[in-house]
Write a structure and sequence with these properties.
heterodimer, A: alpha+beta, five-stranded antiparallel β-sheet, four-stranded antiparallel β-sheet, 9 strands, 16% helix, 34% strand, globular, B: alpha/beta, five-stranded parallel β-sheet, four-stranded parallel β-sheet, 10 helices, 37% helix, binds zinc ion
Chain lengths: 154, 308
């Protein structure tokens, strides 16, 4: 990242999500439930050149840190992402996302005939498999379009 | 998953399957010895989807063990479906019964229901998902005829929505079996079942043409192709005809081929096959009683021993 680019989008307090899979930045915002209506400062870079990924997206959100469940879903659509917590312009914490074993209540099952889509008192639950996630109830596998099944927008 | 539920054939081990089949064989040999085995026990039959045979089969099995059954009746006639969740229904029914048999139109229903109850719960079919008690009687039938190893088994028909097929395919991965799936392109095995078969290292081949594999099969398991799966009547007729079994179709089959079907059939097996040595489907249906007796016996006994 060039010095110039950093200066342009530097934030005082908040989170920088770096090394997001190219093209997933808007889905990252969807996971975080950010649409700009709350007045948060948000900047995104898409298809930024990256040594590690070739191209990557970067998402910077002011005055916001991520919850555990947000990081979990993030890991599904951007497994290479790193999360930098910024306080007073300094990176105070830097971490990579971890793929969880299961995610509960965050995605809805694409199988319309799945019991989790009936009006039952249960949260959806998916186990994370090699290249996707799998509904614990009906066994449906989601691979390519996990972000399309996000259930976290508030 | 608690071991005293039967939700999916994917959870069955070879040892678990053999234990039930051995017990079924013992019951078959001496049914009188089991007549009072579960006297006083109550089995709840919760069928949210009609299935006369499966229900009668569980009903009979429980009564032959000395127990009784309570039946929630048809969905139309009962109040349970009117806005009440399945989770609530099974929690209420749990108070009436020592075990529950559940048939439901949604996939994953039995898995979910089992999370709300302590009594053993048996999945008697969940949508296009699983039907593991059918699989146990299928395996029993195959074992009686030819054992369960070194076999070529053809499974034909609606492989996409056929829950008996999904359960059977999962269970067969425990044995040394070559599985041949024969179906129209549009009704192939669903992705998640294929995923499991691959993970299990099963020997699997897919075909659209039965003639290609028929001569090498020990077992041909036929299922019904439903008209409503096709948008167009002509398309249905073209496909259905191709997957119909009659004496002529079976000319290239081995003499000891066993033709199976979970029943009811419509016209996918011609009546003329009934009189041949190939026909195993009625025997298969009869095996439902000892196998379901064995299953209930095992679940109820284990549950009782586990204390409550
Ligand atoms: Zn599902």
């Amino acid at each position: 990242m060039s010095d110039h680019e950093l200066r342009v989008s530097k934030i005082r307090n908040g989170t920088v999500i770096d090394h997001v899979t190219a093209g997933q930045a808007l889905n990252v915002l969807a996971i975080l439930g950010i649409d700009g209506s709350e007045g948060e400062g948000v900047s995104i870079g898409m298809n930024v050149p990256s040594d590690r990924l070739g191209r990557k997206d970067v998402v910077k959100v002011e005055d916001r840190e991520l919850s555990q469940s947000e990081v979990e879903v993030l890991s599904l659509i951007a497994p290479e992402a790193s999360i930098n917590i910024i306080r007073d312009y300094d990176v105070v914490e830097k971490s990579r996302v971890d793929r969880p074993e299961t995610v509960a209540g965050l995605l809805s099952c694409p199988n319309r005939n799945c019991i989790t889509n009936d009006d039952e008192p249960i949260a959806s639950k998916f186990t994370v498999v090699a290249d996707g996630v799998r509904c614990t109830y009906c066994g449906e596998i989601v691979r390519d379009d996990i972000a399309a099944h996000l259930d976290v927008q508030g | 998953m608690r071991q005293d539920h039967l939700i999916s054939a994917a959870n069955l081990s070879r040892e678990g399957i053999e234990a039930v089949l051995d017990r079924a064989a013992a019951i078959d040999a001496d049914p009188a010895a089991y007549r009072q085995r579960h006297a006083g026990a109550v089995l709840a039959l919760c069928f949210f989807e009609p299935s006369t045979r499966t229900k009668m089969s569980f009903d009979t099995a429980m009564k032959r063990l000395g127990g009784t059954t309570v039946d929630m009746g048809t969905v139309e006639s009962s109040s349970v479906k009117k806005g009440e969740t399945l989770a609530d229904t099974v929690r209420v029914v749990e108070g009436y019964a020592d075990a529950i048999v559940l048939r439901h139109p949604s996939e994953g229903a039995a898995k979910m229901a089992s999370e709300f109850v302590d009594v053993p719960l048996v999945n008697a079919g969940d949508g296009a998902g699983q039907h593991p008690s059918q699989t146990l009687l299928d395996l029993y039938t195959i074992r009686e005829r030819s054992g369960l190893d070194d076999l070529s088994i053809g499974i034909m028909g609606d492989l996409k929505y056929g829950r008996t097929v999904h359960s059977l395919a999962h269970a067969l991965t425990n044995f040394d079996v070559r599985q041949h799936f024969i179906s129209p392109e549009s009704l192939r095995l669903p992705r998640n079942v294929r995923f499991d078969l691959h993970e299990a290292g099963a020997q699997v081949r897919e075909h659209t043409d039965l003639d290609e594999v028929l001569p090498e099969l020990d077992v041909l398991y036929v299922t019904r192709i439903q008209r409503e799966r096709f948008p167009d009547e002509n398309e249905y007729r073209a496909v259905a005809g191709q997957y119909r079994i009659d004496e002529e179709t079976l000319e290239t089959a081995r003499d000891d081929l066993s033709v199976m079907h979970p029943l009811p059939r419509v016209d996918e097996i011609a009546p003329e096959v009934d009189e041949t040595e190939y026909a195993t489907y009625f025997e298969q249906a009869h095996n439902g009683i000892p196998v379901r007796m064995a299953l209930l016996d095992e679940l109820l006994t284990r549950f009782k021993e586990g204390g409550r």
